[in-house]
Amino acid sequence: MIDNIDLHTHTIASGHAYNTRNEMIAAAYQKGIKVFAITEHAPAMPGSCQRIYFTNFRVLPRKYKDMTVLYGAELNILDYQGHVDLPDSLLQEMDVTLASIHPPCFVSGTVEENTDAYIGAMKNPYINIIAHPDDNRFPVDYEALVKAAREYHVVLEVNNASLSPSSFRGNPRECYQQMLKLCIKYQVPVVMDSDAHVDFMAGNHDYAREMLEMADFPEELILNSQDGMLYEYINYKP
Ligand SMILES: [Zn+2]
Ligand SMILES: [Zn+2]
Predict the structure, then answer these.
(1) Ligand nearest to the CA of 40
(2) Ligand 1 centroid to residue 209 C-alpha, Å
(3) Are 15 and 45 contacting, i.e. CB atoms less than 8 angstroms apart?
(4) Whether residue 52 has pLDDT greater than 90
(5) pLDDT for the residue 227
(6) Please, what is the average pLDDT of the chain?
(7) Which of 4, 99, 100, 112 is 20 to 30 Å apart from 159, CA to CA?
(8) Would the pTM count as exceeding 0.70?
(9) Distance between CA atoms of 179 and 57, rounded to whole angstroms?
């Protein structure tokens, strides 16, 4: 499986990650990553960047040697309508955007309410990826989630950090087993992301890859090859 894209990482700017932008980029490059994104937590996450951080990406080069470097955000889904914590006017300027549910920013509701929250976010045309939909502390209807991903042209993430032994998420393997089966049924693409909060994890998808292999997941639905359909799904166009 070709795997040279990592679209979800954090630096010290997120407040609970431990390396600089330059350190993360260098680590990803060393691993052979060809398209690398830095996606800090949006402002509702305690200790993360303020809104103004996300307004100045124009100063950053999009190349490091022959690696493409992209900038975006991991947005917090705030409510059961799927509102997020940055305005569309900023999202449409970003290279890549993820939306996700985090305990400090979202109160789990019923299965229907949690599913509506994700689907509401997917309806936003500037949101590209749903990050780590794998946490049974926020139970969802996976059939509805996957069908909505297809309808709204959104990618579902297989998050390496969720699957690592140090993960605090609720039963991610069982969640992914369900989700991946439905992604095959409805032909919905996924992306493996590191969600690295420290440099040595940048570009590391070992647990995510194992999950996809166990699910016998078709390679043509995995977005991690730079020669594949990546640019059909993210804001940035080369
Ligand atoms: Zn984080
Ligand atoms: Zn997250």
Answers:
(1) 1
(2) 21
(3) yes
(4) yes
(5) 81
(6) 97
(7) 112
(8) yes
(9) 34
Q: How far is the CA of 167 from the centre of ligand 2 (A)?
A: 11
Distance of CA 119 to the CA centre of its chain: 15
Q: Report how far Cα 34 is from the mean position of its chain's Cα atoms.
A: 17
Q: What sign does the CA torsion over 228, 68, 77, 194 have?
A: positive
The ligand that comes nearest to the alpha carbon of residue 99 is: 2
Q: Ligand 2 centroid to 152 CA: how many Å?
A: 21
Ligand nearest to the CA of 197: 1
State in Å: Cα 164 to ligand 2 middle: 14
When computed from its CA atoms, the radius of gyration of the chain, rounded to whole angstroms, is 16
- Rounded distance, CA 42 to CA 75, Å? 5
> 197 CA to middle of ligand 1, Å?
7
Q: Residue for token digits 């689907």?
A: 119
Q: Whose structure tokens read 């960047």? A: 49
Enter the tokens of residue 208.
Answer: 């995510």
Helices (H), the chain: 21-30, 88-91, 111-122, 142-152, 160-163, 172-186, 206-214, 230-233
Residue 124, both tokens: 């936003």
Q: Which of 126, 94, 21, 29 is nearest to 68 (CA)?
A: 29
pLDDT single digits (tens) 166-196: 998 889 999 999 999 999 999 999 999 999 9
Phi, psi of 220 (to 5 degrees): -70, -10
CA 10–ligand 1 middle distance (angstroms): 7
185 C-alpha to ligand 1 centroid (Å): 31
Please report the domains of the chain, with CATH numbers, ordered by start residue: 5-233 (3.20.20.140)
